[in-house]
Specification:
The chain has eleven helices and ten strands. With about 280 residues, it is of the alpha/beta class. The structure holds adenosine-5'-triphosphate and magnesium ion.
């Protein structure tokens, strides 16, 4: 249901004051503390942070898969309720995850993988097949691969199939959690460029999650930096990347490899001086 505030209706993702706890009622651990984050319609927003900082937990909560203990999440103005599986999909959200190996069922041919993504739309078979061919073409794959299986494809091609699967329902919000991290370096830029092309063509909103600040800087207009379950810095991606204010953001910037070894050494010395451990 639309809200009464037009500014909020223009947000693809609106997370406010969200806390996430794991564990049993007796032994609960809070891993996300009071996180607020927005993605405007058509905007690409980055969420960066070291391993274990809570990025995937936020993505899962936005997808309605993980319960929140406080706060609220709206996708395209609709409240996400983990008790109702599919509420995020119904609100127009889709996701692409890190591993194109585990996220595609090896027993299903590509046709079935793509059809399953759109099953709740109850489209006629002919329409499903037409969409499948169209999305494969859009992600740069031959539309005739539908009878083949995921194992027959490379990592980069599998990630394209995972992106095609997300595109089957023409999502308005795509949450990409480490979409290139499992791929060979040479393929990472191709997949990043594909995501940018698709966004330009369809005007989708993106939440791009990564520990790779350089990738997020490349893709996103704004970014949020997480550390131990909290947002420690947020702002225009360029500003955060060039003049990081928080020591942990600085550590993430410093962890991105530089082409110039001398510059790399200077940066390491600066990090050592600020006594921040560089993430691996
Ligand atoms: N299902 C779960 N049960 C209990 N603890 C969990 C669960 N999932 C994640 N955690 C813990 O919650 C914290 C945040 O994990 P999360 O996966 O959200 O971090 P992340 O930023 O995505 O890390 P990475 O960069 O390694 O993917 C970590 O301490 C993790 O061990
Ligand atoms: Mg993660």
């Amino acid at each position: 249901m639309p809200t009464s505030d037009p500014a909020l209706d223009n947000l693809a993702l609106d997370i406010e004051g969200v806390c996430i706890d794991y564990g049993s009622t007796k032994r609960r651990t809070r891993v996300v503390h009071d996180v607020s984050l927005t993605v405007a319609a058509g905007e690409t927003v980055g969420l960066v942070g070291e391993s274990g900082s809570g990025k995937t937990s936020i993505a899962m909560a936005a997808l309605g898969v993980v319960a929140t203990s406080a706060g609220r999440i709206l996708v395209n103005g609709r409240r996400i309720d983990p008790a109702h599986r599919g509420s995020a999909v119904a609100a127009g959200a889709q996701a692409v995850f890190q591993s194109p190996y585990s996220s595609l069922d090896p027993a299903m041919p590509i046709r079935a993988i793509l059809a399953e993504a759109a099953v709740h739309l109850r489209l006629p078979r002919r329409e499903v097949d037409a969409r499948a061919r169209a999305v494969l073409d859009e992600v740069g794959l031959d539309p005739r691969i539908t009878e083949r299986y995921p194992r027959e494809f490379s990592g980069g091609q599998r990630q394209r199939i995972a992106i095609a699967r997300a595109m089957m329902v023409r999502p308005r919000l795509l949450i990409a959690d480490e979409p290139t991290s499992a791929l060979d370096l040479s393929v990472q830029a191709q997949v990043a460029n594909l995501l940018m092309d698709l966004q330009e063509r369809h005007g989708m909103s993106y939440l791009v999650i990564s520990h790779d600040l350089a990738l997020v800087h490349h893709l996103a207009a704004r970014m949020y930096v997480m550390h131990r379950g909290r947002i420690v810095e947020a702002g225009p991606a360029d500003e955060v990347y060039r003049t990081p204010q928080d020591p942990y953001t600085r550590a993430l910037v410093d962890a991105a490899p530089l082409p110039d070894p001398a510059a790399q050494r200077r940066r390491r010395a600066r990090a050592a001086a600020s006594q921040v451990e560089l993430p691996r």
